[in-house]
Amino acid sequence: MSLAHQAYKELYNKEPTKELSLSYSGHFSAFNANVQYTKTFMKFRLSTQWKTISEEIQKGLIQSLLSRIKPVQQTTTNMDLYEKFHKNLSKYTPSIQSDPELEESFNSINEQYFHGMLDKPNLVWGQPSTGKLGSYEYATNTITISSIFKNQPQLLNYVMYHELLHKKHQYITKGGRTHSHTTAFRQEEKKYKTQDIEQQLSTFLAKHKIKKFLKFW
Ligand SMILES: [Zn+2]
């Protein structure tokens, strides 16, 4: 029985109705993976790095992918193993990418709010998006911040704070769903020292959208 087959059977307690396959691909970065599926088959593709990882954890990854397609009430031991592994990944991924403006913001927020205890993640500018302001990716330990915040140190610091809270709080998984904005997260987020920062942020975003709109005309 193949690993994918085993994973399926142990997750749903029945034989799969589709053809399952598993392959390793060098096209993915870090520990990424995905699943493609149709009515007749499911193809799991894992990055080549996964080859060196215990099959028990790989099984957990496959089950986590499966549960996104067809949710389950209870997680398996393998899924819990995979989740632990995933949370720890960022500790093993060396931090390399950075940018002076982002680094300054990181250092200042880390000092002010985290007693300088957080290790520096990769810091990169993203697309100039007004929708997605920032993100933190655990697998590669990377904070990406919308480039509309270039030369906006006050607002940049606030978005940096939010993303660093993600790094600190990690996330919890319930029934295959990921929750990252937990109550504890939101409470700590409110401790930001600039009281009207949310207001400043929405004013800035509104102006930015108008500017983009005028440019378009
Ligand atoms: Zn968030």
Description of the molecule:
- With 217 residues, the chain is of the alpha/beta class.
- It folds into 2 domains: 3-92, Zincin-like, CATH 3.30.2010; 100-216, 2-Layer Sandwich (Zincin-like), CATH 3.30.2010.
- The protein is 46% helix and 18% strand.
- The protein has 7 helices and 8 strands; from the N terminus they run αβββαααβββαββαα.
- The strands form 3 sheets. A 3-stranded mixed sheet has the order 1-3-2, covered by helices on one side. Strands 4-6-5 form a 3-stranded mixed sheet, covered by helices on one side. The chain has a two-stranded antiparallel ribbon with strand order 7-8.
- It is elongated, with a radius of gyration of 20 Å.
- 25% of the residues are buried.
- The model has no long low-confidence stretch (mean pLDDT 88).
- The structure holds zinc ion.
- Residues 162, 166, 180-181 line the site of zinc ion (ZN).
Give the amount of beta strand, in percent.
15-25%
Query: What small-molecule ligands were found?
Result: zinc ion
- Based on the structure given, which CATH architecture of the largest domain is correct? 2-Layer Sandwich
CATH topology of the largest domain: Zincin-like
Number of strands: 8
N- and C-termini, Cα separation: 61 Å
Helix and strand element order: HEEEHHHEEEHEEHH
Number of domains: 2
What does the main sheet amount to? 3 strands, mixed
Average predicted confidence as pLDDT = 88
Structural class: alpha/beta
Question: Low-confidence segments, ≥5 residues, pLDDT <50?
Answer: none
CATH superfamily of the largest domain: Metalloproteases ("zincins"), catalytic domain
Strand order of the largest sheet: 1-3-2
Helicity, as a percent range: 40-55%
Which CATH top level class of the largest domain fits? Alpha Beta
